[in-house]
Design a protein that fits this description.
By secondary structure, this protein is an alpha/beta fold. Helix content is 42%, strand content 22%. It contains six helices and five strands; from the N terminus they run βββαβααβααα.
């Protein structure tokens, strides 16, 4: 799993988006939004991912060294589930390339083409993009041009 946080501009101010991605299938398995950049944002996305994936002990969770991922609560959630913690080297964005690529795709295909009036509008629209398009329909060149859900079905 890879995790990171990005931001989206709305006419009411910034909306922060935390995402957790299954690196095998490139599927967004957890996401959350907030008007503030705090540890609960990352925790909410992580908890959604855990519910979706029900990971067994030994899963590796990779994130940067942001305060949300270094927080005692976030680290404890990972340890309590037997999830191994991996963190990027200081200032090295390449260690989390798949999550950064997802954010670039989301913004290029959707966010930069849209003017969001409110954070609630942006949250709803981003949810539709992730759960209604990105995971079930969007084709990925790295997955032989099939969607993340199709790739998972084939792998199972």
């Amino acid at each position: 799993m890879g995790a990171d946080i990005s931001y989206v501009w709305t006419r009411k101010g910034w909306l922060y988006l935390a995402a957790v991605i299954d690196l095998f299938a490139r599927r967004v398995v957890g996401w959350a939004t907030s008007d503030r950049l705090h540890k609960e944002l990352g925790l909410s996305a992580l908890r959604r991912a855990i519910v979706v994936r029900c990971p067994s002990a030994g899963l590796i969770h990779h994130a940067d060294r942001g305060s949300q991922y270094c927080s005692i609560e976030y680290q404890a959630e990972l340890r309590n589930r037997g999830i191994l913690i991996s963190m990027s080297g200081k200032g090295n964005c390449y260690n989390n390339a798949m999550v950064e690529t997802f954010f670039k795709t989301l913004k290029a295909e959707f966010v930069w083409r849209t003017v969001f009036q409110t954070r609630a509008e942006a949250t709803t629209a981003i949810g539709r993009y992730i759960d209604g398009f990105y995971n079930p329909l969007r084709r990925h060149s790295a997955l032989t041009f099939i969607s993340t859900l199709q790739f998972e079905r084939q792998a199972a």
